[in-house]
Amino acid sequence: MSKIEIACFNPESTIIAFENGANRIELCAGLSEGGTTPDFQSTKDLREKINIPIFVMIRPRGGDFTYSDAEFEQMKKDITALKSLNVDGFVFGILDENDEVNVEQNKTLVELASPLPCTFHRAFDRAKGLEESLEKVIDCGFTTILTSGQKPNVSEGKENLKKLVALSNGRIEILVGGGLRSSNIEDIREATKADYFHSSAITDGGAFVNPDEVVALKNK
Predict the structure, then answer these.
(1) 3-state DSSP call for residue 145?
(2) Does pTM top 0.90 for this prediction?
(3) Where on the tree of life does the source sit, at the highest rank (predicted)?
(4) pLDDT at 100
(5) Which of 5, 112, 154, 215 lies 20 to 30 Å (CA to CA) from residue 120?
(6) Start-end of H helices in the chain
(7) Can you say how many angstroms the Cα of residue 145 is from the centroid of all Cα atoms in its chain?
(8) CA distances (Å), 124 to each of 10, 14, 65, 106, 161, in order?
(9) Residues of the chain below pLDDT 70
């Protein structure tokens, strides 16, 4: 049995993932943008319906991961507001203009989210340097990194993922995601020795989680 976080971009998907055995939800809006901050009310409604951990995406827009002062303020406001809903954690990641982990801004958000845990999302895969970025993310206080090993998908990133799991040495969880499906999870787990896996479980190019895929991911 694998530990599985399902990325859900709408309420229907969240319920499907919950009912079919997901261990955790990454709640987002903006499927076409790769995930943005969901709205307050839909998050509130879902929190009342499901009792597994919900980690909420904090990302004011699609595109790159370097934010203006106004966007950074928005991220702070969103964390404060959504924290009041008894969510279980947050997912975000800020890079500076040199595509390096922005330690100062990330640390500010991690402290604002405290005591809730934070995941550094796939901005990590755009960051310069595997080991340097890992150490910076750990220094910021994140508990998890969502990554495909700084490659376009988990299959191409296998070697880097294996290296990250070894380098992290239990100091931070390496959450493996990016093109992960039930068809490749066994191979990826074997190669990387990771413990936690992330997938949208969307198999038809649409917007909704496939219940059978959630079950298959769990049972592999």
Answers:
(1) strand
(2) yes
(3) Bacteria
(4) 98
(5) 215
(6) 11-19, 40-49, 69-83, 103-113, 130-140, 158-168, 185-192, 211-219
(7) 7
(8) 24, 25, 10, 12, 12
(9) none
